[in-house]
Amino acid sequence: MPNIKKLLVANRGEIALRIMRTAREMGIxxxxxxxxxxxxxxxxxxxxxxxxxxxPPSNQSYLLGDKIIQVCxxxxxxxxxxxxxxxxxxxxxxxxxTDAGIIFVGPSPESIEVMGSKLAAKQAVAKYNIPLVxxxxxxxxxxxxxxxxxxEIGYPILIKASAGGGGKGMRIVxxxxxxxxxxxxxxxxxxxxxxxxxxxxxxxxxxxxxxEIQVLGDQHGNTVYLFERECSIQRRHQKVIEExxxxxVSPEMRKAMGEAAxxxxxxxxxxxxxxxxxxxxxxxxxxxxxxxxxxxVEHPVTEMITGKDLVREQIRIAEGNPLPFAQExxxxxxxxxxxxxxxxxxxxxxxxxxxxxxxxxxxQGPGIRVDDGFEEGMDIPIYYDPMIAKLITHGENRQDAIxxxxxxxxxxxxxxxxxxxxxCRFALQHEAFTSGMFDTKFVERxxxxxxxxxxxxxxxxxxxxxxxxxxxxxxxxxxxxKTPKNTLPTTNWKNRLI
Length: 498
What we know:
alpha+beta, Dna Ligase, domain 1, eight-stranded antiparallel β-sheet, five-stranded parallel β-sheet, disordered C terminus
């Protein structure tokens, strides 16, 4: 079996740093790659060696697969870990890596290719008796045929790009009247975003939950599931808060979903770490959505409740080792919650907010983990995803984890940019979340920008008014010391401060 001695991490920021830390624990030296915008990033400083790929735009740096492979050859690198995003689900890149005699820390190119197409994935898992959302089994382009199929399924329906992700190339159609226009838009958007205009139709689950199962498979045919993650709090189809386990999944449902996820992995001969995503309706029926053939952003909550280092397992699997544990060895310990701290303004439709991290102080204490890739004084670049950090808490139960998270949010100090911290605090304290009775419509159903405005009691309002008067008097005396006292506004609120 190959023994990895030097690992190149083909990524940036928090995930690059997180991978390198595990590699160092395993005695593996690391190579960082970076763009000119990330020259001073912590992952560059942490690595044993670092190479600049080019200018800030991804297509001139982090997406240069051939250049990354060349760096590996020059530095005698044994393996590449792609992290998530960028080249992590690029089957062509994975094949080039393996063809170059370098270990790809991830699944086979064939697995990536099958699961990279939503239609191919559905076809691959069909023989494993895995629940699928009613819809077309292949790409559809004929408008009249598509309309007929939509009528059979029943509105509302969803038009989705086969090669899609992140909500691109996706259109909800409420009635036949708007079908043609929405289909044309979906095809156009899919072609623009992915270079592939293929779309398919499926029933739209009106109030779904987004629940995913973490799987691990080795190259000897062993596959296990490491339970579920609840990922329903989203904005623009992107997750903001995740937790493990889910508040609504029973042991029986967990077993059924886990075994279905293992079936999905076996359908494409999967090895490595992967995530099988399901949508769950209001009756807790679950349907296969897609498989992400990489490490997920939210993997830390699984690590917290299982005690397993998923990156360590990825590396061991890539080396050809069998899984060191079986399904019956895995247990859930406590509860974990993760929030994504984005440089976004929740009061302005979650638009990215770039700038300098003037103040940056991480929360600390028992059960708190911060995965980040920034330091105080650094600029948030405009070229990449605006996530600053992932804040994760662990507790004996769900309420303990939530309480600890709220304390950690209050202790986090970030100035210079707007962040999603206030929104996450609002969501975690909302009755829908604390009760566990929420779905992917949480933001549109419960959140408005004014919900983040401070709420003061009558007594606090009176104190603030009194303080304002005191401040006014001091300023007036400073500017014009001869002003008679009786010319100033009078109020009895000032007395409340005494």
